[in-house]
Design brief:
- By secondary structure, this protein is an alpha/beta fold.
- Helices cover 23% and strands 21% of the residues.
- The chain contains 14 helices and 27 strands.
- The strands form 6 sheets. It has an 8-stranded parallel beta barrel with strand order 10-11-14-15-16-17-18-19. The chain has a 6-stranded antiparallel β-sheet with strand order 20-21-22-27-24-25.
- Strand 7 and strand 8 form a beta hairpin.
- The longest helix is centred in the last third of the chain and has 19 residues.
- The radius of gyration is 26 Å and the shape is elongated.
- The mean pLDDT is 97.
- Bound molecules: calcium ion.
- Calcium ion binds next to strand 12.
Length: 637
């Protein structure tokens, strides 16, 4: 039905390239520009409030048809803080919608708001600079966090529970004094905090956030923050200022902020602004007019259409510029075309050379609306060398196949060849060009938490054994070459246990009782031991550049399998001009003796402890307990 949108004739006539879509506020006037090439007429409706359905229209200003299918209007005077929508006649119907480019909105994102963005900047914003310089992605460590999960539990000690401002509270602690929230993150050794969706999503009623929880993978408005995380969802400027305050707080502690963006689908396909104003334009459909659903969310974004492409490129640039972000994580980037990703990376990096980009490069079945459009899937990684991909190779090798949650992986006793482990450790998964493209992980928001996956694969395992296997997994994942990534709370043996005793494998709308980070866990001795273990592993990674190799050839040259080592050990030998590092992994139940090469070695990792400066020195034979890692370093003369 909408195939015409993807024809060269349509694109030639209706591709608008200006940078003024949306509204431009000034004290003297506000200008509007809407792209709606199939509309017969259009107007801007100005409202006193941002609440849909409220009878408080101030004025309806007719728009004039302008170039390339756009409509323009001008409102004289200072309209800062006034709410607005567009009303168009299209296909014989009158449709009212929020502006797809709205930068602010009222409650639940149904009316946009005219805004003086400088008025939303918190104190010190003009002096804010990127905390992390441009450098190899392998120097980064990413911590994946949901805004609400961080603070909502009573044990967090955080006042602004479930809000952006919860990220700004300093020196919070559990009742017994263990650091929580921002203070906890700062002591870990991570470099970037990746926030699960912070754009305006549709599944939580902003007027009553306590009534529902969601991860937020259901975009309502792409260019403004989610209102349920603000202290006042009715005033469009508050959520903007409070998100900036959160970014500023993280920056002050040297942490980069990565935004999780979901351009591959929208919440309700035909209720989405673009699809209302230009019917069906934003979404892919097949020859029978059926929406393409490779995202498993009912609609796939037609990023290959010129004005969808522009919308996504504009949107990412807007967030990078306006919110001082440090990176973007693209949800199912494998549904977005390569050209769009190339242009995003080139345009954003031109202004912000420190920016990082990665995403889920899964190959999903989708109905492209144009021929010969390559998608940003893992296997096309060479076309987007600055885009990283979640490394399902190391994930499934270590924790077990994602397609059968009862199966063990290497960390829970499954046999894995040394060659495969070497490929994982080297950050050379087969599909990536270099380790900078491999985002290594054993847990994220999707699927079972690491603790729960181990518990499900090994139902007889005690909590102590699960903790031990978790540390074993962390040692492998955090020391492997690539970009280490982990779900917030993995370092505290986070579990998403249901009342039934089962583990939640898809907690996207489960209650806070399942999703929240339970800081009271810090009272547990195994949790404390595991937390310190993570800190030590990340310190060790920082200390030795051999763990942060950035190119595949160097990884292959510098890292090999140590020879003549006893089963079931796998021992990697890392060597450069300065030093030799042995990293040994014993997945068996029993201890194994390993003969160290000649000379004295500084032991930095054992089954229960890590210390980048060395726990002890060793020579000759060492015993490596069951289910544990062992790392030793020898400096060269
Ligand atoms: Ca919302």
């Amino acid at each position: 039905m909408f195939q015409e949108y993807s024809t060269p004739a349509f694109e030639k006539k209706y591709t608008y390239t200006g940078n003024d879509l949306g509204h431009q506020w000034s004290p003297e006037q506000t200008l509007f520009r809407l792209w709606a090439p199939t509309a017969a007429d259009a107007c801007v409706c100005l409202y006193r409030s941002g609440t849909e359905g409220t009878d408080d229209l101030i004025d309806a200003i007719p728009m004039c048809a302008d170039v390339c299918g756009t409509w323009v209007a001008r409102a004289e005077g200072d309209w800062n803080g006034t709410y607005y929508t567009y009303k168009v006649s299209v296909g014989g119907k009158t449709v009212e919608s929020i502006d797809p480019y709205a930068a602010a909105a009222g409650v639940n994102g149904r009316r946009g708001m005219i805004i003086d963005l400088r008025g939303t900047d918190p104190q010190g914003w003009d002096k804010d600079t990127p905390p992390i310089p441009p450098r190899s992605e392998t120097d980064n460590v990413i911590y994946e966090l949901h805004v609400r999960d961080l603070s909502i539990d009573a044990s967090s000690g955080i006042d602004a529970k479930g809000k952006f401002l919860g990220l700004t509270e300093e020196n919070t602690a559990t009742p017994s004094g263990h650091p929580t929230g921002l203070a906890h993150i700062c002591q870990l050794g991570v470099t970037h905090v990746q926030l699960l969706p912070i754009y305006d999503y549709g599944s939580v009623d902003e007027a009553h956030p306590e009534k529902g929880y969601n991860w937020g993978y259901d975009p309502e408005n792409y260019n403004l923050p989610e209102g349920s995380y603000s202290t006042d969802p009715y005033n469009g400027s508050v959520r903007i200022r409070e998100l900036k305050q959160a970014v500023l707080a993280l920056h002050k502690h040297g942490l980069g902020v990565v935004m999780d963006v979901v351009y591959n689908h929208v919440y309700h396909s035909f209720d989405f602004s673009v699809n209302k104003l230009v019917p069906g334009y934003f979404s892919r459909e097949d020859a029978n007019g059926k929406l393409s659903g490779g995202s498993c969310c009912g609609n796939d974004t037609a990023s290959e259409r010129s004005m969808v492409h522009k919308f996504i490129v504009d949107s990412v640039n807007y967030w990078a510029d306006e919110y001082h972000l440090d990176g973007f994580r693209f949800d199912i980037v494998g549904l977005i075309d390569v050209q769009t990703m190339q242009e995003i990376i080139a345009t954003v990096r031109q202004k912000h050379p420190h920016m990082i980009f990665y995403g889920e490069g899964w190959d999903m079945a989708t109905e492209l609306t144009k021929p010969d459009v390559p998608l940003a899937v893992q296997s096309n990684g060479a076309m987007v060398p600055e885009l990283g991909f979640f490394n399902d190779t190391i994930r499934d090798t270590l924790r077990g196949s994602i397609f059968d949650r009862s199966l063990p992986g290497y960390i829970s006793g499954a046999p894995v060849s040394r060659e495969q482990l070497l490929n994982c450790f080297r950050g050379v998964a087969g599909w990536n060009q270099s380790p900078t493209q491999a985002v290594n992980y054993v847990s994220c928001h999707d699927d079972l938490a690491l603790h729960d996956r181990i518990a499900q694969a090994l139902p007889q395992a005690t909590e102590d054994e699960i903790a031990r296997r978790s540390r074993f997994a962390a040692a492998f994942n955090l020391l492997s070459i690539g970009v280490p990534f982990f779900q917030a709370g993995e370092e505290m043996l986070r579990s998403k246990k249901l009342k039934s005793g089962k583990y939640d494998s898809n907690s996207y709308r489960s209650p806070d009782s399942v999703n929240s980070i339970k800081w009271s866990r810090l009272e547990d001795a195994q949790v404390q031991k595991t937390l310190r273990y993570y800190q030590g592993l990340l310190a060790l990674r920082r200390e030795h550049s051999l763990f942060r190799i950035a190119d595949a050839a160097a990884a292959e040259r510098c890292i090999s399998l140590a020879e003549n080592t006893p089963e079931p050990l796998t021992v990697f030998r890392l060597e450069d001009k300065k030093e030799i590092i042995l990293a040994a992994f014993n997945p068996g139940q029993d201890g194994v003796n390993l003969s160290l090469p000649a000379g004295s070695w500084q032991v930095c990792v054992t089954d229960e402890q890590t210390d980048a400066q060395g726990l002890s020195s060793a020579q000759g034979e060492v015993s490596i307990p069951g289910i544990s890692a062992f790392v030793a370093v020898q400096a060269k003369d």
